[in-house]
Amino acid sequence: MGSQKVEKEMGLFRAFFKEGNRRVLTGFFRKMILTMAIILTIFEVWLGAIGTMDLFQYTTVFYPLVLTAAFLQFSSTKRVKGQKPTWLDIFMAAMSLGIGVYFLMNIELYLKRIPLFNPLTPLEMAIGIATVLLTLEATRRTLGFTLTSVVLVILAYVFWGQYIPGAYSHRVIDYNHFLDDMVYTTNGVFGTPLGVAATYVFLFVLFGAFFTAAGGGEFFFRLAATISGRSVGGPAKITVITSGMFGMISGSPTADVLTTGSINIPTMKKMGYSPVFAGGVESAASTGGSILPPIMGSAAFLMSEYAGISYGAIVIAATVPALLYYLGIFLQVHFRSIKQNMPTLKEEEIPKISDVFKEGWIYLVPLVFLVIGIMNGMTASLAAVLATAIVIVCSWVKPEYRIGYKKLILIFEEVIERMVPVTMACAAAGILIDGIMLTGLASKFGTLIFSLTAGSLFLTLVATAVLCVIFGMGMPVSSAYILTAVLAAPLLINMDIPALNAHLFIVYYSCLSAITPPVAVAAFAASSIAQADPVKIGLNACKLAIVAFILPFIFVYDPGILLKGTWWDIASSIVLSVIGVIAIAAAVEGWYKARMNKLEQVILLVGGILLIAPGLISDVIGLIITVTILSMNRIKAKKSLNPDKNTEDVNILEA
Fold it and tell me: Which secondary structure element, helix H or strand E, spans residue 638, and what is its range?
């Protein structure tokens, strides 16, 4: 009896180390969420289009509403069944809403107040403690214990780090100082990450929801089928294209896998691809959406704000590497499909290109406007608002996709549902950043890395990449990026790497953490659809995305593929990189025109990497290796196609 009680208590303890269940709300609570979503959308559209507010002011309006939604939409643990919030959930939601009301009523005081000048009142202390604790609990519910545990470690270091002997000790930080800086300034919870979620991210999630509801998703699928449906392995190639397009808009590899993968993965399995390969293709293609211009998910917006680089400059620089990433996946799918003799789509399943554009050209209008607007200096927020308005107008041109009252309700619900995890990640990132800054951990960490790598740029880049992957285990891309950017970006910049290159390096590896085992969140999402081992799917996705693991190192040393330098530097970098990607894809799959042996694969892989790597000598050696191996493979393919001719030649010689 006693052992059963202990086991039950331990089971409850373990349950609290996992995220909760997402609820499908009904009745009063659904109406409440919908009301908050409408208020939030109106506020965000006003702020993005014409409104002007202090960062602290608009985040204290935005965050309490999303925090309230988090406690209503997510249960405390997976053990809590049912779609109705418990009394504990309602109490926490009411506290969250109360924090928002408090700041709304006293905002003028906090906009004029000098931080740390006067001690906090007992009420302010209570509000501060509640804000931090509610953030921790909502983060655990929505994102699991991985991110929450990192925050808890930083908080422990803030309060007890002074007891650590040596260089990693810091001055005493009392609770008044901590709460004042963390809650009543823009250094902590209500800081830059949350500000990005409350502006760019929300508005682009809104744009994506409207675009999909208006039929843009169907247009993507039809366009992808037209482009690659007739080629060998059409269904897998369609997956690469559609998942990239959706991932660019959603900014979440996991959400993209669950959205497009529900169609793509079963289709690939039906056509004869293994479940592991199907899940790998979906995971790799969805993950790349976060680095695919012009939208690039939330990480690009955070990079723009945190690094002080214009969004337009980021989009331009990221274009070629992103296209090389997808070229690598596409070619691997192509070579695998030929090697396994995969079928094409049936002719009746492939729409005519003229019909696709005749019926769907209108969906290109908001996307083109978005790109042109941002490139011409329009703020990303205003561009997103206007592009969303264009989408609504476009929907009324097509009666079957017309956005009316019922669709609006579904869109509002979808937006706030998708914003909860992103917002919690950004709020938790704010706590992490402030904790690191309060303790001076960033400079201490930089010194540690520098001493471990002996000042070697390459080894420092390797250490940064490993950090990104570790921090990204179970974390959203935005959190992994922010944490690594705070710790490692200053060190890279001090080593004379341009800020754009350094931060884009971190963005890439933060994104790739979504497919890197053992905690590959995109692969785990794909495994539920593919019914296959998530670790094997993750390894397969990494294999498909091998180019993306190489590219960040290359554009640190050779900014040509970031479109920096002379026209000759840029052109030669792009051409050689394309040839290098072809070589790497062929080497990994062991097929170009015919099957390769292991030695040929290794040599060709080295040649491909040398082609992408900067330097005249490496380019010449890589080109010689690549041309030689691929030419030999072509000859082998021709011989295999005409075996009778070879036998005939042998008989003549014998005669």
Answer: helix 616-641
DSSP annotation string for 260-296: HHHHHHHHHHHHT--HHHHHHHHHHHHHHGGG-TTT-
3-state secondary structure of 309: coil
Return d(Cα 258, Cα 410) in angstroms, integer.
Answer: 18
Phi, psi of 591 (to 5 degrees): -155, 135
- DSSP lists the bridge partners of residue 257 as none
pLDDT tens digits, 91-137: 999 999 999 999 999 999 999 888 888 889 999 999 999 999 999 99
What is the DSSP secondary-structure string of 151-183? HHHHHHHHHHGGGS-STT------HHHHHHHHH
Angle at 29 between CA 24 and CA 32, to 5 degrees: 120
Length, in residues, of the chain:
655
How far apart, in whole angstroms, are the C-alpha atoms of residue 323 and residue 288? 10
The answer to whether residues 125 and 175 touch, using CB atoms and an 8 Å cutoff, is: yes
Residue for token pair 């490692």: 488
SS3 (DSSP) at 144:
coil
Residue 74's φ and ψ, nearest 5 degrees, are -120, 130
Tokens representing 516 are 């890197």
C-alpha span between 404 and 57 (Å, rounded): 32
Q: 278-289 pLDDT, tens per residue?
A: 999 999 998 888
Task: Give the 3-state secondary structure of residue 13.
Answer: helix
In sign, the C-alpha dihedral spanning 313, 196, 188, 507 is: negative
> What does the block give as tokens for 195?
């500000």
The whole-model pTM stands at 0.78
Per-residue confidence at 642, pLDDT binned at 50, 70, 90? low
Amino acid at 521: V
Hey, is 513 helix, strand or coil? coil
